[in-house]
Structures are given as C-alpha cells and as structure tokens.
Amino acid sequence: PENAAARKIAAAAIINIDALNDILKNKYGAAVEESITGKYFSDFCGPYKISSAAVNFGRNYTAEAAFYLPVMIILAVFYALKRRENEAYRLSLNMTDFVSKISHQLKTPLSSSLLHLELAEKHLETGESEKAQGDIALAHEEARSLAFLFENYSVLNRIFSDSVVLNMQECDIEQELLLHLRSYKTRMDAGSLKVSFGSLAEASALIDKWAFYNIIANLISNSLKYVKKPVVEINFASKTANGRLTLSISDNGPGISEADAPKIFDKFYKGSEAGGEFRSSGLGLFIARTLAQKMDAELALNREYNNGAMFDLRMRMK
After folding, report:
1. H or E stretch covering 37
2. Buried (b) or exposed (e) across 280-301, using 16+ Cβ within 10 A?
3. How does pLDDT run across 194-231, given as a tens digit for each residue?
4. How far apart are CA 170 and CA 240, in angstroms?
5. Which residues contact 118 (CB under 8 A, 6 or more apart)?
6. Rounded to an integer, what distance in angstroms lies between the CA atom of residue 256 and that of residue 259?
7. What letter does residue 42 receive in the DSSP assignment?
8. How far does the chain reach from its first CA to its final CA, in angstroms?
9. Could you tell me which of 204, 206, 210 has the C-alpha nearest to residue 165?
10. Nearest Cα to 211, choosing from 245, 244, 178, 180?
11. Is the distance from CB of 302 to CB of 311 less than 8 angstroms?
12. What are the pLDDT digits (tens) for 221-259?
C-alpha cells in the first residue's frame, strides 16, 4: 500500500511542500508546517505537521477522519519520498568524493614509481649502477604501496556490495601471524622493521584467514607509515578471557591523540599524524574493523597504552 500510494503521489506531481500546501489551502483551508528547529513531531511524518485551526468539524469525528486520514497519508508519503531524495543526494556526493580520493591515492605512487624507474634508467646509462639500484628499490617500494591500495579498494568494494563471504575455521593465531609476517622479510632483514612477540596464549581462535590477514596487514601498514623512526618496532601479545582470545598489536610510534581517537575507524578519516602522507587513504582502520565485525570479532584502540599505538583484536574461541 505504501509503495502504491507513493506512485500515485509521484504521478500527481506532489513532490514539494509548496505544492502540497496549495492543495490543502485551496481545498481545506489548512496548511503543512515544518519544524523550524528540525525537531520531529512524530516518527510517522517527521518534522511536518498539519495546521487546520480554520477548519471547524464541530467534533464530527467522521468528518475529522475523512479530512485527516488522507492528508496524513499524503504527508507521510511526502516525508518518505523526501528522505529518499536526501539520501540519494548524500550518496551522490559521497561517490563523487570517493572517486576523487581514489584517483589521487592511485596517481601519486604510480607517478613516483615511474619517476624512480626513469632515474634508474639514466643512472644505468651513465654507469652509476649503485644509484640505479637505489632508484629501483624505491620504485619497488612505491609499487608495493600501489598494490596495497588496490587490495584495499578491492576489499572495500566487497564490503560495499555486501559480497564478503567468510570461511570461519579454528586456527592457531601465532602460526597464522608467522605465515603473514613472511611478506615483510625484506624489511626485517634490512633492519627497518623489528617484530617481537610478548606473552602469547596457547589457544586457537575462530577466524577467516583472508579477513585476518587483511586486518593485520592494515595495522602493520599504519605503523610503517606513521612511525617516523629508523626502526619500526611492532609487538604482538595475546591473552584469553571469557571465551575470547585478545591479540594486541602495538608499535613505537607517536600513538593516537585524544582528538583523533573517537574518529579513527571512520571511513576516509586521516588522523593528525597523517599530514601529507600520500599513502594514507583513510580506509585501513575502517576496513580492518568492518572485517573484524564480520568475523564476529572486535577491533578496538587500547587507550591505556602510552608508548605508541596499540590495537586489541578480540576473537571468538571454539
């Protein structure tokens, strides 16, 4: 019935408050008022209400019902259409902003990578092989950043399209961490990344491996971007309580400010430490928390940690 009414209202071109008021004034001597403060009069019609002081029904309830019922239905349908119109406009703005940000995030590392490759080519032509190797290493680093951005956008697309299908299984978390950390071997061998393990609980948790790897990858990526020290130190520790295994991931960076803390899991939010960091998309923590929730887990910032940033991933145990 609501959809049928909406189609009839749309067909009659009652699409704005002025058109609706003209009809009510001419036929009933009534009007629709909108709350100045935006406060809702009712969940049924939102911030709109009918003002009909000029209409005298003489307490004829049949006449009142005959007047109010169709007008209230019209008003409710109008409010529903207005909400959909506003939502469509908001989504349109978000999409435009999203495409703009994606373009910028992908363009910067791509351009930088090409520049380093061009420099490497020139250095090879002049016999400066050592400089060429350095430029190739930098181009490789930019390419890795680009690949990580593509992976995050791919995950984001799956999240937005609600096509994330997880394969939950009981896994040894320490073993899964060791497997994932192999991808950082070059950094660890070079001494720019130091990974340590604190007290680890001998317990398994229910996870989806793909989601778990993406969560850990985004947390490590944040540390690599924001820890402005020669050596980035990341520590893993875990404990069990109340049927949950909590994995804590900490670093030796600047930490999260009190101002940033409430918003760091918001889409596209970049903390004060991001500055001009082009590799920061403002999506990493949003993706990590969303994937954690889909695993029936919880990812939270540990505000009691003062030596950097620490995140706690609480997972279900079988």
Report:
1. none
2. bbbbbbbbbbbbbeebebebeb
3. 999 988 888 899 999 999 999 999 999 889 888 889 99
4. 15
5. none
6. 8
7. B
8. 47
9. 210
10. 180
11. yes
12. 889 888 889 999 999 999 999 899 999 999 999 888 888
Q: Give one DSSP letter per residue of 229-297, joined into a string.
A: SSSEEEEEEEEEETTEEEEEEEESS----TTTGGGTTSTT---TTTTT-TT--S-HHHHHHHHHHHTT-
Cα Rg, the chain, nearest whole Å: 29
* pLDDT confidence bin for 15, thresholds 50/70/90: very low
Helices marked H in 48-193? 61-125, 129-160, 173-181, 185-190
- CA-to-CA distance for 93 and 101, rounded, in angstroms? 12
Write the single-letter amino acid at 267: K
Q: Which amino acid is at 38?
A: G
**Cα 263 to Cα 172: distance, rounded to the nearest angstrom:** 32
CA-CA distance, 264 to 311, in Å (whole number)?
12
Q: Is 300 helix (H, G, I), strand (E, B) or coil?
A: strand
Q: Torsions phi, psi of 31, nearest 5?
A: -150, 160
The tokens describing 14, both together, are: 């009652």
> Which tokens belong to 29?
């001597």
Q: DSSP secondary-structure letter at 227?
A: -
Residues 6+ apart with CB under 8 A from 188: 181, 194, 195
Q: How far apart are CA 89 and CA 81, in angstroms?
A: 12
> How are beta strands 310-316 and 244-251 bridged, if at all?
antiparallel
Backbone angles phi, psi at 233, to 5 degrees: -110, 125
